[in-house]
UniProtKB/TrEMBL annotation:
Gene Ontology CC terms: Golgi membrane
Manganese in keyword set: yes
Start and end residues of each stretch annotated as Disordered: 236-256
Binding site residues for Mn(2+): D115
Main location as per UniProt: Golgi
Lineage: Eukaryota, Metazoa, Spiralia, Lophotrochozoa, Mollusca
Biological-process GO terms, alphabetical: carbohydrate metabolic process; chondroitin sulfate proteoglycan biosynthetic process
Family: Belongs to the glycosyltransferase 43 family.
Active site as annotated: E200 (proton donor/acceptor)
Topology within the bilayer: Single-pass type II membrane protein
Designated name of the protein: Galactosylgalactosylxylosylprotein 3-beta-glucuronosyltransferase
Length: 256
C-alpha cells in the first residue's frame, strides 16, 4: 500500500507549546497514512501532551527523554548556543527501528519540528522517497530560503551562506529518509557532541548517503513547501500586575 509517513517531532514544555502542537496537528489531519511520533524533552510524559495527542484522533506514539542538564538551554541563552531535540529525535529513530518492518509496510521518515509551517504538498513530495529526498526550506539561515542546487536532476551544490562546506549543509526540515535505509544502518543517529550545524550531516553520513544519492523534490528544488517559522516568546508580565492590582491572576486550572 501507500508508504506511511513517520513524523518525528521533538517538543518541550513552554507557554506556546499547545498552540504549536494544535497548528501542526491540524496540518497532519489532512495527510493520509501518517504516524506522528512526538517525543517530549522531559523526565516524564506530561498530561498536557498526553491529553492533547489523544483528542487529535491521529495515529501517534508518545515518548519522552530529557536533554541532559549540560546540553540544556538556559532561559536567556541565545537559542543557537546548544543543539535542540537531539536525544528526542534519536528516541524516535530507535522506536522506528524496533517497531516497524519496512518490507511489510514501506515508510518514510521526516523530522518535523513543532513550530515550522508545512504545505500539504510537501507530504506528497516526500512519500515515495527511495533513499533520501531533499527540497528547499524557506525563512532559514538568515536568507529567504536555503536549497540544494540541481542540475540535470542531480544535486550539484547548495545555496546557503552559513558553513557551506558541511557535507550536507541543510536544515532538518529539508530532507526525508526511506524507512528501510534507517533499518539498514542501525548506528546512524544524531549526537550532542558535534559542532553547531552538523546534526543533519552526522545523520546522513551515518546512513552512508552521498550527494549523488539525493532525490531532488519540489519541482527540482524550485518550490518552497516548508518554512522554518519561529514563534515569538509570549510575555505574561501582566499576570503579576493583576495580582498586585486586583488581588488575583489567571486560573492555573485553565490550560493554555
Ligand atoms: N526542542 C526541544 N527541547 C528544547 C528546545 C527545543 O525538544 O529544549 C524542540 C522544539 O520543540 C522543536 C525542535 O526541538 O520541535 C527545534 O527547536 P527550536 O524550534 O526551538 O529550534 P530552532 O527553530 O531555533 O532550530
Ligand atoms: Mn524552530
Amino acid at each position: 500500500g501507500l508508504p506511511v509517513i513517520y513524523l518525528i517531532t521533538p517538543t518541550y514544555t513552554r507557554l506556546e507549546q499547545k498552540a504549536e502542537l494544535t497548528r501542526l496537528s491540524h496540518t497532519l489531519m489532512l495527510v493520509k497514512n501518517i504516524h506522528w511520533i512526538v517525543i517530549e524533552d522531559s523526565e516524564s510524559q506530561t498530561d498536557l501532551v498526553a491529553r492533547f495527542l489523544k483528542q487529535t484522533g491521529l495515529n501517534y506514539t508518545h515518548l519522552n527523554v530529557p536533554t541532559p542538564a549540560e546540553f540544556k538551554l538556559n532561559m536567556d541563552d541565545p537559542n543557537w548556543l546548544k543543539p535542540r531535540g537531539v536525544l528526542q529525535r534519536n528516541a524516535g529513530l530507535e522506536w522506528l527501528r524496533r517497531n516497524t518492518s519496512p518490507r511489510r509496510q514501506p515508510g518514510v521518515v521526516y523530522f518535523a519540528d513543532d513550530d515550522n509551517t508545512y504545505s500539504l504538498k510537501l507530504f506528497d513530495e516526500m512519500r515515495f522517497t527511495k533513499k533520501v529526498s531533499v527540497w528547499p526550506v524557506g525563512l532559514v539561515g538568515y536568507l529567504r530560503y536555503e536549497k540544494p542546487i540541481v542540475q540535470n536532476g542531480k544535486v550539484i551544490a547548495w545555496f546557503t551562506y552559513w558553513k557551506p562546506n558541511r557535507p550536507f549543509p541543510m536544515d532538518m526540515a529539508g530532507f526525508a529518509i526511506n524507512l528501510q535505509l534507517l533499518h539498514d544502518h542501525p548506528e546512524a543517529a544524531f549526537t550532542n557532541s558535534v559542532q553547531r550545524g552538523y546534526q543533519e550531516s552526522t545523520l546522513l553520513s551515518g546512513l552512508k548517503i552521498s550527494q549523488d544519492d539525493l532525490e531532488p523534490k519540489a519541482n527540482m528544488c524550485s518550490e518552497v513547501l516548508v518554512w522554518h517559522t519561529r514563534t515569538e516568546k509570549s510575555k505574561t508580565r501582566n499576570e503579576d500586575n493583576m495580582i498586585r492590582k486586583y488581588g488575583r491572576g489567571s486560573d492555573p486550572r485553565v490550560e493554555v
